[in-house]
Amino acid sequence: MNGPKHLCADSDGNILIADTDNHRVLRYDPKTETSSLVAGTKKGSAGFDGPSENMELFQPHGVQISQKGELFITDSFNNRILKIVK
């Protein structure tokens, strides 16, 4: 990671992390001690109409899971808040 800024837990006990300077959001599974990409491929603003794994972010600073299981990402330098529903 490079500049992690914020984290939250999902209903399964996974930790979602805003990896700000790598322009991505990761999911860390403490049971298996592995991480996987949730969103963000590189610095930019494209790809938000497709799979979250293919979207570009520009310094995401916050992540939050709603009671419905939706993931919200504050994409700081793109001046937007994204909602990811899976």
| Major sheet attributes | 4 strands, antiparallel
The counted number of beta strands is 7
Helicity level: under 10%
Run of helices and strands: EEEEEEE
Q: Judging from the principal axes of the Cα atoms, what is the shape?
A: globular
Cα gyration radius (Å)? 12 Å
What is the topology, as strand order, of the major beta sheet?
Answer: 1-2-3-4
- Which CATH architecture is right? Beta Barrel
Fill in the CATH topology: Thrombin, subunit H
Low-confidence stretches: none
Count of distinct structural domains: 1
> Residue-averaged pLDDT, rounded?
94
Q: What is the count of helical runs?
A: 0
Class derived from helix and strand content:
mainly beta
- Report the sheet-strand fraction: over 45%
For this entry, give a set of tags:
single chain; 86 residues; mainly beta; Thrombin, subunit H; three-stranded antiparallel beta sheet
Topology:
Layout: E1 4-9, E2 15-19, E3 24-29, E4 34-39, E5 60-65, E6 71-75, E7 80-84
Antiparallel strand pairs: 1-2, 2-3, 3-4, 5-6, 6-7
How would you describe the overall organization of this protein?
The chain is built from no helices and seven strands. The protein has one domain: Thrombin, subunit H, CATH 2.40.10.500. The chain has a four-stranded antiparallel β-sheet, with no helix packed on it. A three-stranded antiparallel β-sheet has the order 5-6-7, with no helix packed on it. It has 86 residues and is an all-beta fold.
In brief, what are we looking at here?
The protein is mainly β and 86 residues long. The protein is built from no helices and 7 strands.
